[in-house]
Amino acid sequence: MKTMSPWHRCVSPGYHLRQSSGISLGRWFGLVAILLIHVRPGAAHEINTSYSVVSVRSDSVRLILSIDEADLLRLDPQIDVNGDGLLYRDEVLAGGGAMALKLQDRLSTEVDGELHTPEMLSAAPEVDVDGNLFLRIVYDVPLVDEPPATLVLDLEKFLQAPLLDEHKNLVRVFVASDQPELLAVLSASSPVGRFHLREEVDLLAQVMHFVWLGVEHIFIGYDHIMFLAALIVIGSRLGPLVKIVSAFTVAHSITLILAALEIVSLPTRWVEAGIALSIAYVALENFWIRGAASHRWMLTFAFGFVHGFGFANVLRDLGLPSQGLVSSLLAFNVGVEIGQVVIVAILLPGILWAAKHGHQQRLVQVASAVILLFGVGWFVERVFDLSYMPI
Q1: Cα separation, 188 vs 190, whole angstroms
Q2: Cβ distance 142 to 155 under 8 Å?
Q3: 353, 236 contact by CB (below 8 A)
Q4: Each residue of 66-87: pLDDT tens digit?
Q5: pLDDT in tens, 250-287
Q6: What is residue 186's DSSP assignment?
Q7: 8 A C-beta contact, residue 215 and residue 270
């Protein structure tokens, strides 16, 4: 998910930053800082997502494919006319048509068992609400019979290199005004979407789909993982850790629901910056806090509100279905919780082992130093709209 407090020294006697055997804390800071400095610009914090909107009409099936600037550069570096590594609206306008024709052969649709290659109608630049530049391509498949019963969208050739392995295409299929839209998430490992256009939506399958999307989002959301790690690394007893994780869960569930239902809305850029700020602050606090302090759960509750807006931004991109909206929203939240439980279950044994064998102080120092650097890096990247972080 694309997507700081002032630096100061505040270390309690219980956490002396002293050098011992192995690598000192200062050297850890240096090593990680070098890693961040030498990252290739533009290598991270990209959308890695394209969007397909399919409308089934009486005389055609219309496909609108939206591809962001980073993926356009991967698909055809020549679209960057001035070679500066960035794309501008006029460059997308000039090269969009050729790109659309090039991609036409990588898209395949099957309507009621009959294979079709979509025909390109138009290609134009488009900017979304967050300022991301896209190429919006409109394709069309003419129909000669009655509206179809089945539709297969095959993006296998499109979702291969040079697109990244983690690239996803979010598909929304609109059949008729009185029918709910159909949703799918396609990737290189699962590039084909099959849609039954005249059948009722399988709510159970839809719910399980959103549960998995929630789990997946946590597993690939490195910022959320680091926030959880920073929260629990100082703990040596299970009770306070359960309280901290529960506070985070309740808080982000509240804002996730409010934002996903568009009751409350915040700019994506500042939500993502706030998430980075929360990571940096918690990691910094770990240097002087001793154990799972009594206030930590309250701090976690406050930061959980911010993370909930981040989860909601993901759901906004996916598009909640009109039928089964509440169940899908809750299912995504359940998936997020399952993902968090799995991550805590993986990290906690190591933390408890370190506490038992007298290594917790060094673990807290090293882990918090690394997390702090990433938090600061993400914050600067997101506030100033840069792209240099490794993940």
Answers
A1: 6
A2: no
A3: no
A4: 999 999 999 999 999 999 888 9
A5: 999 999 999 988 899 898 889 999 999 999 999 999 99
A6: E
A7: no
Handedness of CA 12, 13, 18, 22 (dihedral sign): negative
* Cα atoms found within 13 Å of the Cα of residue 328, Cβ hemisphere only: 23
pLDDT at 292: 54
Using alpha carbons, list the distances in angstroms from residue 11 to 25, 170, 242, 365: 13, 47, 26, 11
Q: Residues 82-116: pLDDT tens digits? A: 998 889 999 999 999 999 999 999 999 999 999 99
Contact between 351 and 359 (Cβ < 8 Å): no
Residue 56: count of CB within 10 angstroms of its CB: 21
| pLDDT value of residue 199 | 74
Q: Which two tokens stand for residue 24?
A: 């000192």
- Report how far residue 31's alpha carbon sits from residue 139's, in angstroms, rounded to the nearest whole number: 49
Rounded to whole angstroms, the Cα distance separating 288 from 266 reads 32
Q: Which tokens belong to 263? A: 């009751």
The torsion angle over the Cα atoms of residues 289, 291, 293 and 294, rounded to 10 degrees, is -170
Work out whether the CA dihedral 220, 221, 223, 228 comes out positive or negative: negative
Q: Look at residue 177 in the predicted model and tell me its pLDDT.
A: 63
Q: For 319, which DSSP code?
A: -
Cα distance between residue 319 and residue 310, in whole Å: 15
pLDDT value at 39 more than 60: no
Phi, psi of 61 (to 5 degrees): -115, 120
Q: What is the mean pLDDT of the chain?
A: 83
Closest CA to 69 of 148, 8, 125, 152: 125
Mean pLDDT value of segment 171-183 = 82
In one-letter notation, the amino acid at residue 119 is: E
What phi and psi values does residue 183 have, to the nearest 5 degrees? -125, 150
Nearest to 125 by CA among 152, 80, 91: 91
Bridge partner list, 60: 142
Backbone dihedral angles phi then psi of residue 65, each to the nearest 5 degrees: -110, 125
In the chain, count of helices (H) and strands (E)? 10, 10
pLDDT at 321: 77
Residue type, 69: E
In whole angstroms, give the CA distance from residue 291 to residue 269: 33
Instruction: Give the global pTM.
Output: 0.69
- End-to-end Cα, the chain, rounded Å: 10
**Residues 384, 273: Cα–Cα separation, whole Å:** 10
